[in-house]
Amino acid sequence: MDTIASLFSFITTPVSWVIVQFHKVYGAIFGADTGWAWGLSIVSLVILIRICLIPLFVKQIKATRAMQTLQPEMKKIQERYKNDKQRQSEEMMKLYKESGTNPLSSCLPILAQSPFFFALYHVLNGIATGKTIGVINDPLLASARKAHIFGAPLAAKFTDGADKVAALGASLTDVRVVTAVMIVLMSASQFYTQRQLMTKNVDTTVKTPFMQQQKMLMYVFPVMFAVFGINFPVGVLVYWLTTNVWTMGQQMYVIHNNPTPGSKAQAAYLERLYKHVTHHGKIRRRSEKAIVKAIVAKGRDRNEFERKFINGLTKAGLAAQPDGTVVKSEVTAAATADDATTAAGAAGPKRQQPKRQSKAQRQSGGAKPAGGSEPTSSSPSLDKADEPQDTKPAGAAKKTTQQPGNGARSRAQSGQRKGPQRPKSPSKK
Fold first, then answer.
1. Which end of the chain offers a freer environment for a tag, N or C, measured as fewer CB atoms within 10 Å?
2. 314-333: string of b/e by CB count within 10 Å (b at 16+)?
3. Within the chain, what is the greatest distance between any pair of CA atoms?
4. For 368-406, where are the alpha helices, taking DSSP H only?
5. What is the pLDDT of residue 401?
């Protein structure tokens, strides 16, 4: 580790200068030789570095999502050219170039932060060995060696012996308890951050090898921190624990406000956005407009959660616009009014059902009842008004009336087709 740290000695002076400036501020409040002054100086260094790395973090998010989108295409290339590794690499590079993605973009924050990490290790190692380094002179070196965090010196390690710890003015038990607690917190925060990413912010509609790699890293990184953590000075553990807590909070913010499409976090976000939009009738935040604009631009390529969001707005009488805004939909309002009119018309006067005829009326083919009223029949036979009066002989009508018991003939007569009938020839007697 000392050899690696010496490779980044070119940045040791700037890092030590930043720590000294923060130490002047906190030393005036808590005292120059206290662990609070030096510990908060390291924490402030982490915050300053992470603020400067926010643009790289944004690129990391975009690169990670782009890689997730390309995973199905990458898998096809791997299966197609599984026996030709050179052609496989060429097709992969071509895919990256066409999509404008870079696999190394997801590692940019870690790579950019590494020089500061090793430079800080180099500074703290110099404090542990009693050597001035960077802008830390002899008075500052003596002050830093007196600083303790919960009884553990900044430059002490878990693997240090009792003599070395005693030279720093502390006990071995205090050093090992403090370093063990910080290593556990550091590993736990790293595990929670990675697990949060896997369970909430991963597109569940696409199963790719990338997800398996992330799942493996969820368990590998905490183990790595636990193994290497025993060789880190307390000040470096403070630095790395602060970095992990910052990353965890930053990840929670991204998952809550800008989740990955198709993930569980997106479903929860769109549900919250739907309730907000239907309550206020508009979108206020610029980030929300950007998300709605992206959903509208997808068209038929929307996932299940995005379709549910758009359909919910439509049912609520709202319409998402291409610029990300939401307006009232006149088409939906007109359709609702038409539906209400149709429902009102359907609830108007009911159609009266015909009265049921008696057996004698059915057998007589719909003859007039005794009261003289018109017969009510649902049979398809012709009414009197529809029958041609001049072509129907009187004898035939009389014969039909005089034989009410002839059921077969009545059924045949009731089964006549509609329309003008062919005149029957008079019966010959």
1. C
2. eebbbbbeeebebeebeebe
3. 149
4. 394-402
5. 42
DSSP codes of every residue in 263-281: SHHHHHHHHHHHHHHHHHS
Residue 131 token pair: 């050597």
Work out the burial of residue 305: count CB atoms within 10 Å of its CB; fewer than 13 is exposed, 13-18 middle, 19 or more buried: buried
The pLDDT of residue 380 is: 42
Q: Which pLDDT value is given to residue 356?
A: 67
Per-residue confidence (pLDDT) for residue 242, from 0 to 100 = 92
Model pTM?
0.67
What secondary structure letter does DSSP report for 160?
Answer: -
Q: Say what the pLDDT of residue 109 is.
A: 73
Residue ranges of the alpha helices (H) in 100-171?
Answer: 108-129, 138-146, 162-167
The number of angstroms, rounded, from the C-alpha of 95 to the middle of its chain's C-alpha atoms is 26
Sign of CA dihedral 310, 315, 316, 318: positive
DSSP, res 105:
G
State how far the alpha carbon of 275 is from the alpha carbons of 253, 254, 294, in Å. Answer: 20, 20, 19
Interatomic CA distance for residues 12 and 160, integer angstroms:
24
